[in-house]
Write a structure and sequence with these properties.
Blueprint: H1 3-12, H2 15-45, H3 49-52, H4 56-59, H5 62-67, H6 82-86, H7 91-110, H8 116-136, H9 140-145, H10 158-168, H11 179-182
Length: 197
Amino acid sequence: MSSFMRALWRWYFRPSVVVGQGILLTLGLAAGIVFWGGFHTAMEATNTLEFCVSCHEMRDTVYVEYQESVHFQNPSGVRAVCADCHVPHDWGPKVVRKIQASGELWGKLTGTIGTPEQFEAKRLELATHVWETMAATDSRECRNCHSFEAMDFEHQTQRARDKMQPVATGEYLGDGSTCIDCHKGIAHKLPQVPRDD
């Protein structure tokens, strides 16, 4: 090793530099922990029902509809909140969805859905976006709570049994159908589709 390299090595690892590096490493680690904790806390805080209905656009429209649905009140007492249906549970897809949702806040900020009339005018567009997303993920959020293995077909209505048993046994697999194809409007009213008169 050359004398220059030895001198550089001794200079770099002198006690004051080593202590400084240790302090920087400790501060960086602490900042990372604080950032990660804050980020995770914000992710979970924005998954609560209270957060979702904190703006009147949601509280006065879809929240009212949701309160009349089986996802809000049912004999078993199990309640699905907004995030259960609209936010993936896995971390990576959840972050992607949260980034998309931050873009949706633009409608709130610009007032394009600020009144019930404006919301109704965009309902089909908003619902279509949700349905397409659910279809693309094979209704992943539905399957977080519902599974064919847990269904008691004997306690379903005849109509439900006739529809669900063939799907559960794989009779309909491969045709591209997923939960949302049959269950649109399960928690919110369906948009009015414009008709040609």
